[in-house]
Every structure is written in structure tokens, then in C-alpha cells.
């Protein structure tokens, strides 16, 4: 168990365990978001090129269809990769690629271990659902919550009894 201290110092009585700063968490999210944005942009570019080609050839060119289909597949692959990376991978090993780069890890408070791939995916989907239902208010609050929380937890962390620590 990672006992949480009452102050921002983080886990008490566990030597060497340091809670991740908001800046590191934001940096990891930025890296993860950029990866998704680049992959999605490539897909959208193919779809756009297909649409442009279709307009220029008045629909008489099979290349336009191929470009559009490839673009759609790339967009779906980007979404699938994003779900795997921020959901399953982060749950299974405690780190998305962004978290790995900045040196932080998502762990359960109960035992300091990753929460599991399925739970990680559920955590991501719950954030998306609550963000959608509240028109993004939940998402904004959960990203900002560690700025004033004594344990530097997001709302998602509180729901799933997790913390993000330096690795």
C-alpha cells in the first residue's frame, strides 16, 4: 500500500516514492496528444487528397477512392492506437509513451502496482463519457485537479484509487 501523506510531500513511509508533478503529467499528456494528432492528421490528409482527386476527375478515378479508404483506415488506426496507448498500455504497465518519456507511472494506491489493462481502458472511457456528458467540464477539472490536490490526484485517480509517481 502507498500510504498518502496529508501534505503535498506525497506518500509517507515509503522511501523513494515521489508523486509526479502537474508539469510532468501535463508534459506526458502533451506528448501523447501530439502522437495522436500526427497520426490522425496523416489519415485526414489522405481523405482530403482523395476528395480533391475525386473533384478533379469527376468521380471517374479509382485512385480517389483508394486515397479516401486508406485515409479512413489510418484515422481508425490512430484512434485504436490512442485507445490502446492511453487505456490498455497505461493500465497494464503504468505508462503511456508520454509518461515513459517524462519518467512517471500510474499505480494503484493499494499496492503500488499498475491497475491492469482492462481497468486502464475503463478509466479512459469513463473520462471520455463524463467529459462528454458534462460538455468537457469534467475533463478540464480532472486535468487541473492535481494543481490543488494534496496528493496530486486527478478526479480519475480518486475514482480508481490511483496516483502518478516518479519512476
Summarize the SSE layout with pairings.
Layout lengths: L21 H36 L4 H32 L3 H6 L1 E5 L8 H17 L3 H8 L10 H6 L1 E5 L1
Antiparallel strand pairs: 1-2
Helix pairs in contact: 1-2, 2-4, 4-5
Descriptive notes:
The protein has a two-stranded antiparallel sheet with strand order 1-2. With 167 residues, the protein is mainly alpha-helical. α1 runs antiparallel to α2. It has one domain. About 5% of the residues have low confidence.
Distance between the amino and carboxyl termini: 16 Å
Q: What is the string of helix and strand elements?
A: HHHEHHHE
With strands numbered from the N-terminus, the spatial order across the biggest sheet is 1-2
Q: What is the total domain count?
A: 1
Helix fraction by DSSP (H/I, runs of at least 4): 55-70%
Write a brief caption for the model.
The chain crosses the membrane at residues 29-52, 64-84, 124-145. This protein has 167 residues and is mainly α.
What are the salient characteristics of this protein?
6 helices; 2 strands; mainly alpha; elongated; 167 residues
